[in-house]
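hey m, so remember when u said the tokens were messed up on ur end? i reran from scratch. heres the input so u can diff it against urs
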Amino acid sequence: MPKPHTSPAAPTPANPTPAPTPLPLPLLRADCANCFALCCVALPFAKSTDFAVNKPAGTPCKNLRQDFHCGIHTRLRDEGFPGCTVFDCFGAGQQVSQVTFGGRDWRTHPGTSGAMFEVFPVMRQLHELLAYLSEALTLPAARPVHAALRVALADTTRWTRATAEALAALDIGPLRQEANALLLKTSELVRAKVPGRKKNHRGADLMGARLSGADLRGANLRGAYLIAADLSGADLRSADLIGADFRDTDLRGADLRDALFLTQPQLNAAKGSPATLLPPTLDHPAHWLP
């Protein structure tokens, strides 16, 4: 059994609410209509194959309109901004915009901008943890660590409701380390149910690897570099994919239905098709081949 939580105590929310309830996984995704385009302002990006221009942190993207909508949203890839189509904040944008700052936007309340842009990356990490912890709690094989997972989920949820000042001062490292220990144990428990010998490619350099049709059920692919790898038709059920780099990975026809800790940003970075089988909480990206 994992050790008890030792991370900094989560603060009491400014507006107390009932005990935290895990968010459904689909809700831990970006809701741009309720966000003040924080990813288009707070985050920096460099001119590259992902972005057509340089942009420093805290500066609005040149394509951002006054209404916080993107002026080239339907043409991002054609205009040289595929990196924007890959990004997902796990719902942190609307949390910061509507909860932490109570609906006060950085245009009409410019005094909030510095704190808002500082808090957003922290909130994104918290929401990413919420997504992983919530998924782990849905897995029957992880029942031995469900109690510890619920504690971690409650602590993380309380942090998402903290003040901007508390969030800006948060050292999120201990929270991530303790959550990762629980997620690793979850992975081990789930993958142990998969019959046969499981492949261990944790952190492996598999860039450009030819793995078409490979049986990777229950494999450990944590943090693996799968950039431009061919995983077409591969069986990735119950494989641990947390932190795996799927940029330009060929997932056409792959089976990812029960893959562990797969995220929408990973799929957005990959190549796939309607024949790619996904968990019900995730979507086929619009740019995938027909």
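this time it looks ok to me. The chain has a mean pLDDT of 92. if urs says something different then somethings off w ur setup not the seq
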